[in-house]
Amino acid sequence: MEKKIISSDKLSVAGPYSVAVEAGGFIFISGQLPINPASGEIVMDIQPATCQVLMNLQTLLEENGLSLKNIVKTTIFFKNMSDFTAVNEIYAGFFPTEPPARSTVGVAALPKDAPLEIEAVAIRIS
Fold first, then answer.
1. pTM as predicted
2. Domains of the chain
3. pLDDT of 71-93, one tens digit each?
Protein backbone atom coordinates (compact mmCIF):
# COMPACT_ATOMS: atom_id res chain seq x y z
CA MET A 1 0.00 0.00 0.00
CA GLU A 2 1.32 3.40 -0.98
CA LYS A 3 1.35 6.33 1.45
CA LYS A 4 0.96 9.92 0.22
CA ILE A 5 1.52 13.01 2.36
CA ILE A 6 -1.14 15.66 1.81
CA SER A 7 -0.42 19.28 2.62
CA SER A 8 -2.01 22.67 2.14
CA ASP A 9 -0.52 26.12 1.67
CA LYS A 10 -3.54 27.48 3.56
CA LEU A 11 -3.22 25.32 6.71
CA SER A 12 -0.27 25.42 9.06
CA VAL A 13 1.58 22.57 10.74
CA ALA A 14 3.25 23.32 14.05
CA GLY A 15 5.23 20.16 14.67
CA PRO A 16 6.61 16.93 13.29
CA TYR A 17 3.41 15.70 11.67
CA SER A 18 1.54 15.92 8.36
CA VAL A 19 -1.75 17.75 7.86
CA ALA A 20 -3.04 14.57 6.26
CA VAL A 21 -1.86 11.21 4.98
CA GLU A 22 -3.57 9.16 2.28
CA ALA A 23 -3.24 5.38 2.31
CA GLY A 24 -5.46 2.71 0.79
CA GLY A 25 -8.01 5.27 -0.39
CA PHE A 26 -8.41 6.71 3.12
CA ILE A 27 -7.32 10.23 4.06
CA PHE A 28 -6.34 10.56 7.72
CA ILE A 29 -6.55 14.24 8.66
CA SER A 30 -4.69 15.46 11.72
CA GLY A 31 -6.59 17.36 14.37
CA GLN A 32 -7.42 20.86 13.17
CA LEU A 33 -7.55 23.84 15.49
CA PRO A 34 -9.78 26.86 14.79
CA ILE A 35 -6.98 28.86 13.18
CA ASN A 36 -8.00 31.66 10.85
CA PRO A 37 -5.64 31.08 7.87
CA ALA A 38 -5.60 34.78 6.97
CA SER A 39 -4.48 36.01 10.40
CA GLY A 40 -2.97 32.89 11.97
CA GLU A 41 -5.02 33.63 15.09
CA ILE A 42 -7.07 31.12 17.08
CA VAL A 43 -10.83 31.74 17.01
CA MET A 44 -11.88 31.41 20.65
CA ASP A 45 -15.70 31.80 20.59
CA ILE A 46 -17.06 28.24 20.30
CA GLN A 47 -19.51 28.57 17.39
CA PRO A 48 -17.22 30.63 15.12
CA ALA A 49 -14.36 28.33 16.19
CA THR A 50 -16.33 25.25 15.14
CA CYS A 51 -17.16 26.90 11.83
CA GLN A 52 -13.48 27.78 11.28
CA VAL A 53 -12.29 24.22 11.93
CA LEU A 54 -14.87 22.76 9.55
CA MET A 55 -14.05 25.36 6.87
CA ASN A 56 -10.36 24.45 7.26
CA LEU A 57 -11.21 20.76 6.80
CA GLN A 58 -13.33 21.66 3.77
CA THR A 59 -10.47 23.68 2.26
CA LEU A 60 -8.01 20.81 2.67
CA LEU A 61 -10.41 18.33 1.10
CA GLU A 62 -11.34 20.61 -1.80
CA GLU A 63 -7.65 21.25 -2.58
CA ASN A 64 -7.40 17.49 -3.04
CA GLY A 65 -10.52 16.95 -5.15
CA LEU A 66 -12.78 15.93 -2.27
CA SER A 67 -15.53 17.45 -0.12
CA LEU A 68 -16.97 17.10 3.35
CA LYS A 69 -19.19 14.33 1.92
CA ASN A 70 -16.05 12.18 1.74
CA ILE A 71 -15.60 12.27 5.53
CA VAL A 72 -16.58 8.98 7.16
CA LYS A 73 -15.43 9.64 10.76
CA THR A 74 -14.65 12.64 12.95
CA THR A 75 -13.40 13.02 16.48
CA ILE A 76 -14.12 16.25 18.33
CA PHE A 77 -11.97 17.21 21.31
CA PHE A 78 -13.58 19.79 23.64
CA LYS A 79 -12.05 21.79 26.44
CA ASN A 80 -15.53 22.42 27.78
CA MET A 81 -18.19 19.74 27.30
CA SER A 82 -20.88 22.34 28.01
CA ASP A 83 -20.14 23.55 24.44
CA PHE A 84 -21.59 20.30 23.05
CA THR A 85 -24.98 21.76 22.00
CA ALA A 86 -23.44 24.91 20.46
CA VAL A 87 -21.00 22.81 18.44
CA ASN A 88 -23.77 20.46 17.28
CA GLU A 89 -25.72 23.42 15.87
CA ILE A 90 -22.80 24.44 13.63
CA TYR A 91 -21.69 20.86 12.87
CA ALA A 92 -25.19 19.91 11.65
CA GLY A 93 -25.05 22.74 9.10
CA PHE A 94 -21.89 21.29 7.55
CA PHE A 95 -23.28 17.72 7.53
CA PRO A 96 -27.03 18.18 6.85
CA THR A 97 -27.52 14.63 5.52
CA GLU A 98 -25.68 11.39 6.13
CA PRO A 99 -23.27 12.79 8.75
CA PRO A 100 -20.08 10.86 9.43
CA ALA A 101 -19.61 8.63 12.45
CA ARG A 102 -18.31 10.70 15.35
CA SER A 103 -16.68 10.52 18.75
CA THR A 104 -16.62 13.39 21.21
CA VAL A 105 -13.98 13.62 23.92
CA GLY A 106 -13.56 16.07 26.78
CA VAL A 107 -9.95 17.09 27.40
CA ALA A 108 -8.17 19.24 29.98
CA ALA A 109 -6.32 21.39 27.44
CA LEU A 110 -5.60 21.80 23.73
CA PRO A 111 -2.68 23.40 21.87
CA LYS A 112 -2.75 27.22 21.80
CA ASP A 113 -5.55 27.08 24.40
CA ALA A 114 -8.04 26.38 21.57
CA PRO A 115 -11.63 25.61 22.60
CA LEU A 116 -11.85 22.54 20.34
CA GLU A 117 -9.99 20.42 17.81
CA ILE A 118 -11.46 18.14 15.16
CA GLU A 119 -9.73 15.28 13.37
CA ALA A 120 -11.26 13.38 10.47
CA VAL A 121 -10.98 10.35 8.23
CA ALA A 122 -12.18 10.69 4.65
CA ILE A 123 -12.35 8.21 1.78
CA ARG A 124 -12.01 8.61 -1.95
CA ILE A 125 -15.34 7.55 -3.43
CA SER A 126 -15.14 6.13 -6.93
1. 0.94
2. 3-123 (3.30.1330.40)
3. 999 999 999 999 999 999 999 99
